[in-house]
Amino acid sequence: MNMYTLLLAALGVASANALAADSAVLSISGTIMPAACVPSLSSPTVDFGTLRASDVLAAAAGGNYSLPDKSLTLTLTCGAPTSVALFPIDNRTPSKLPNTSYTNGLGEAPDGKAIGYYKLKFTQVWGDGEVQQLTVRGPSGSWGASQDNLLRTLTDTLYGISSKAGESPGSYRVQSYHFDLTTVIVSPSKLPLDAAVNLDGNMTFELRYL
FRET pair for 180, CA 20 to 30 Å: which of 7, 11, 134, 193? Predict the structure, then answer.
């Protein structure tokens, strides 16, 4: 068996060499991509600073503790008018509260308990200097108007902007998504506040070219 294998291999090399002397192969390859878009956040990091456990517990009074609301803007700057959508990814899903589609994980306390949640709500969208309409594509693959303007990190859910709500995203050089950020510590009295508890929300906005 080994002899046949070696013989066939030797014949194969000889044949290949013979062909190589009489021919040459040219390969041409490349990829045409749409104009690249560069995303930027007005506040890449939202830092609530140091919170005193006693103040949080007193303000929560046995319930939840709401941190001050913030406003954020995500801007996409493209080299040419481009149709592009947002695909948001919650990078802290292990700490995500159950049975909610619009809240995102805020990290875990040292004992493994979920600290709370944050949510983002679209307040306005702009395309090339004009107010546009938010449009959403769900798992069905069809674009439609948002019912509550809340951002959801669900599989196959995309967000774009168009001149009319519910239509496929239009092509723009500059797109701006404006959000209100709400952050809540859930039942702080049940967290181990005798040690430091670090808020650790983290989200990726992935661009999908259409």
Answer: 193
C-beta atoms surrounding 72 within 10 Å: 16
The tokens of 86 are what?
Answer: 């947002």
pLDDT tens-place values along the chain, 210 residues long:
333 333 344 444 444 445 555 777 887 877 776 678 999 999 899 999 999 999 999 999 889 999 999 999 999 999 999 999 999 999 999 999 887 888 999 999 999 999 999 999 999 999 999 999 999 998 888 999 998 999 999 888 999 999 988 899 999 999 999 999 999 999 999 999 988 999 999 999 999 999
Distance (Å, whole) CA 134 – CA 143: 10
Delineate the domains of the chain, giving CATH numbers in brackets.
33-209 (2.60.40.1090)
CB 208 within 8 A of CB 113: no
pTM: 0.81
DSSP 8-state secondary structure symbol assigned to residue 81:
E
